[in-house]
Structures are given as structure tokens and as C-alpha cells.
Amino acid sequence: MRNLATTTVSLSLLAFTLTASAIAEDAVIVATGQDGQTRVRRTGEILDFTGQTLTLRTTTGAEAAIPADRVIDIETEWTAPHRRGDEFFAEDKFAEALEQYREAARQETRPWVRRRLLAQAV
Fold first, then answer.
1. How far is it, in rounded angstroms, from Cα 50 to Cα 40?
2. Distance in angstroms (rounded) separating the CA atoms of residues 105 and 97
3. 52, 70, 108, 111: most buried by Cβ count inside 10 Å?
4. What strands, in cross-sheet order, belong to the sheet with 63-67?
């Protein structure tokens, strides 16, 4: 009986570990300093990104507001249609990109990414 209990606990821990590692973490590259020349990588979950502010829930749970003009780059998980749309766009294949962006918007659950897709489609 002890082996069964140990196996169950081990499987539960494995499932928790796999679930926790499957949760993607966003990263934001931010220009800092008065001259904006220094770069800092901040991690957490992007809650919103408007034309004025990016809101990031940090790994400690705190929320940070980052001015949009300080955001250099965003590292996050994009859907496959979103990535394909970006590839088509870079190749000046705008009709194909638009089709992919529309599909990505149907699949996407994050409001800030949906806004980004809409802006790119326009």
C-alpha cells in the first residue's frame, strides 16, 4: 500500500511540475535611464498594453506600469497564425497576412494581443 501512495504523490508532483512549467512567462525589454540607452528585461504576465502603458504583473505578484514609449520589445507566446501572419507581412504578402491575423484573433484570449492583431491588420 505504501508504494501506491508514494506513486500517487509522485504522479501528482509530476503533473504539478509539468503544469507549472507549461505556463509561459512574458518578458518585456525596457529602455531605462534618462537617455533611454540602458536595457532591462522584466518578466511576468502582461495584463494590458495600450498606446500609453504596458501593465505587467511581475513574478512577485506586484503590478508595474511601464510607459509604452519605453517598451523596446515583448517576448511572449504567439499563436501559430499570428506568427505566420507576421511572416507574410514581412514578405509584403498582405492579403495572406490579413487572413492569418483574422484567424489568430479568433484564437487569441488576451485583449491586448487582440488589439495588436487589429492594429497590424489595419
1. 20
2. 12
3. 108
4. 63-67, 53-58, 38-49, 26-32, 71-75
At 61 the three-state DSSP class reads coil
Contact predicate 70/32, CB 8 Å? yes
Q: Do residues 103 and 81 touch, judged by C-beta distance below 8 A?
A: yes
The amino acid that residue 29 corresponds to is: I
At 38, list the grid cell. 540602458
38-60 tens-digit pLDDT: 999 999 999 999 989 999 999 89
Mean pLDDT confidence for 72-85: 97
> How many angstroms separate the Cα of 122 from the Cα of each of 21, 51, 53, 81, 89?
35, 16, 21, 17, 12
Q: How far apart are alpha carbons 85 and 83 in whole angstroms?
A: 5
Rounded Cα distance between 71 and 69, Å, is 6
Residues 102-120 pLDDT 10s: 999 999 999 999 999 999 9
C-alpha cell at 116: 495588436
